[in-house]
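Changelog-adjacent note: as of this version, every example in the card shows the full chain rather than a window. The one below runs 401 residues end to end.
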Amino acid sequence: MTVDLRKDFVNYAKSLNVASEDKNIRTAISRAVTSYRNTVSETLERFPHTPELAEEVKGIKRQSMADLDNLLEQAMASVERNKGKAFYAKDHQAALEIALGLVGKGKTVVKGKSMLGEELHLREYLEDNGNEVWETDLGEFILQLRKERPMHILSPSIHVPREQVAEVFSKFFNKEVPPDIAEEVKVVKEFLREKYFTADIGISGANVVAADTGAMVIIENEGNVRLATGAPPVHIVVVGVEKLVPTFQDAMKVAEVTWRYAQYGVPGYVNIVSGPSKTGDIEKVTTYGAHGPKEFYVIFVDNGRTEMADEDKFSQALHCLRCGGCMYECPVFQVTAGHFGHIYMGGIGAIWTAFVSGGMEKAAPLVYSCLRCGRCVERCPMSIEVPAMIGELRERIVNGK
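Full-length structure tokens:
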């Protein structure tokens, strides 16, 4: 299929140029890069076994992607065994239709941060179909009010300084909110607290899924995911099939490496969810729907992932743990933030864009923005060879493949 490089390229180039002149982005990213490097360096000194564990995780991910079909079948059976309901979505539209079928219309939904949700435009789709949906991650909440997309996969509103946050919140809450971070956090906490306990449905992603037990491992710091998935009567997990690993022990190893390279010695919360809430405290009779959700659904989303897994030259991109470290080291990202991206960002984002979130037309401008300098590979705990994959994509674009 021939790719017209002119389509969308002009607007993308303008976006990069504007971003490169944005003082807020330059200041915010500069601070974030310094903080990230210092924290990760200190963390790896405290936990020196982490690089060796990362080597083990590389093997786990390699094995998992080679056995994806079997792991998916096993995971779906595990979810059903745990009294949940599992679904497989082959593509973007199927995932949205399954989600809407579970949510319905006229519902209140609280949602945790999810790059897959961004890929699917899940919140917007549910809103367009008559639902009230609230992002509960602070950064995502800010962007929801600003009607913007994330500028980093872990710190989505990294480009928005406290002064601009105060302006947005003052307008939304119809009261003066000072540019004080603690006060900004407080006002959102007060607003969302009521939403958690009146919501009909909670939606989350997952960082890693153990096929043998059906356990979803969700890493967070704010506590919003714990509330969004524990308080409403229904919990829906929307997760990419690349998050599957064989065993629970494998999942915890993946999780530990992920949070170490994501700038945390240990995260605030590690949620492990395998089914609806239950109790056996009366006569040892298991009853579902105790303090937490009575209904539990998992949508395993493909949307181009198995095609990526089947390509030897690109399957390694599925090993990405979403730690975000590569972006802080990327020279282009350092001056443009997530404007170097479509849904997924940076060099690795160009590869993901080609396969799952826009195709080659959307990926082409990103492919030619990447410097192929290899700094991302040096930082990546999975040592993903992004420059080689970028080179292959360039060759395909030139040859019209």
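Structural remarks: The longest helix spans residues 23-46.
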